[in-house]
Amino acid sequence: MPIYDVTGIGNAIVDVLAPCDEQFLTDYKIEKGAMTLIDENRAQELYKAMKNVTEVSGGSCANTMAGLASFGGKGAYIGVVAADQLGDIFDHDMSALGLTYNTSRYLGSKETARCYVFITPDGERSMNTFLGACTELAVEHVDHILISNSAVTHMEGYLFDKDPAKEAYFLAGKIAHEAEREISLALSDSFCVERHRKDFQELVKGSVDILFGNERELQALYETDSVDEAMRIAGQTCKIVVSTRGADGVAIIFNGEEIFVPAPKVDRLVDSTGAGDQLAAGFLYGYTHGMSPEASGLLGVKAAAEVITHIGPRPLMQYKDFLQE
Amino acid sequence: MPIYDVTGIGNAIVDVLAPCDEQFLTDYKIEKGAMTLIDENRAQELYKAMKNVTEVSGGSCANTMAGLASFGGKGAYIGVVAADQLGDIFDHDMSALGLTYNTSRYLGSKETARCYVFITPDGERSMNTFLGACTELAVEHVDHILISNSAVTHMEGYLFDKDPAKEAYFLAGKIAHEAEREISLALSDSFCVERHRKDFQELVKGSVDILFGNERELQALYETDSVDEAMRIAGQTCKIVVSTRGADGVAIIFNGEEIFVPAPKVDRLVDSTGAGDQLAAGFLYGYTHGMSPEASGLLGVKAAAEVITHIGPRPLMQYKDFLQE
Q1: pTM for this one?
Q2: Using 50, 70 and 90 to split pLDDT, how confident is the model at A268?
Q3: A35: which strand partners?
Q4: Between chains, do B97 and A49 touch, taking CB under 8 Å as contact?
């Protein structure tokens, strides 16, 4: 029996959230809906322009782990922060959720990563990430004990923007499969997939058991306009492919069979940050607790529907309440 | 003509907000509705226990200045943060609002202050403050140029917990009055008033033109069960006394005459943090723009009604929109 349901590997990031209007995105040339990597100068320029700012721990995979913990799941996390106050905040927030988080702090001059999240009135989020200490994640952080004792090791695509992290992912895949555990991957962002298509294809083919992606991400992975085609290709090597469809719900391929789980209606979309992350959280909780793909998908869409009703990428309620419904 | 409408002097604090239930307050012996000063050990103990944490800039007077800026007022702020990341966040948030904030950073070993805010389901907030670098505020920070060029200098009672800050307040009063400007004081907290009653009485009598306090604070100031009696005593030396009455509205004594301004109805109280601060913001904006006490009070209750509908102590809308109504 594995000790952990899920170990996550990801970019350990503090989110810096601010509301803004469409004009602001135009004025500052921010690509709407995308995650763009930025350098320190650009980070300073954008931060200067932000008003009504809130700081919360973020990071795609870390958000998923927060959701898993909220369902009552047992999780661990691997990701690098610096020995600074933002690192303390990130560390606190993981530990407070009951997650095991032991990754050694980076002690050099880079600061803990932050993601500037611009939230437009339509609830869409446009992200600009300064990776800072995150970029230090490498094979030495891949904890053999955690991974070989976790039913699933969940990884986020964003880390593929740095070569040492790519190596870490392939190593994690090797460790997991040698221990007869599974690997799950969230593609994260279609532009990131395009930047590293070949490496993503290799990882998905050789190491990934459960693949998460929205339509654009899956299409980008196989350079096709058809998401069905993309899911079919992924499904040839992955046990499960989970394709998120926004407000519609989620399409799942499991053992070659396609299942569709509709999403609950959301009255008021406030901030879509974390929707995909919490979808993965619900699905992985269900999956690691012996539920069917359909039941797992239902937990996923419920969690995603909750997180978009408020500012911030992590649950504000106990997701374990969904288990009684 | 003064250059600034208001210069604020206060504890420069980053708020660390988390929802909790009533049991949590009992378990951790947190006094409900009060602001309690805590030491570093207690700060660590409480922080460890907090989940779903959000960080935002706070500090009573700084919140008032944020509100003033949101009305379109011109403001400056005096308060001490450390040369750390939380200090950077506080500094950024003041500057982003267009406020002048030039107080030199504290360079010693104390960190920027934080206030752990526990929000119960009834919207009440219970605050535990670790003052850190705040306690360094002293006469050398009292900026003669800012104060003598501001129509009003607004101060928060919380700073009275440290003697060097008391001295700074008396000096600010002297500078303001020599320049024919006015001093405003928010009593902040009835327990703080009780801790320093004599000094508060002396300050109010000798230096304060506009006094803000809720019923308990005003009663504590003069050791009386009657808020009317307390307002009458304060009104003998203060030009204006503003007594907040929660959901009912605000009572104002101006030139010996009492005015009552009812508060707008709020559908859903989410987090009462910042209500008194934004009341003062609205009132001071109106007052420094030549409005009547009644019109100023109306801006105050509108701002207070907005800030309690969401998490966090600062406006999420432009208060200048209230000016068109």
Answers
A1: 0.89
A2: confident
A3: A127
A4: no
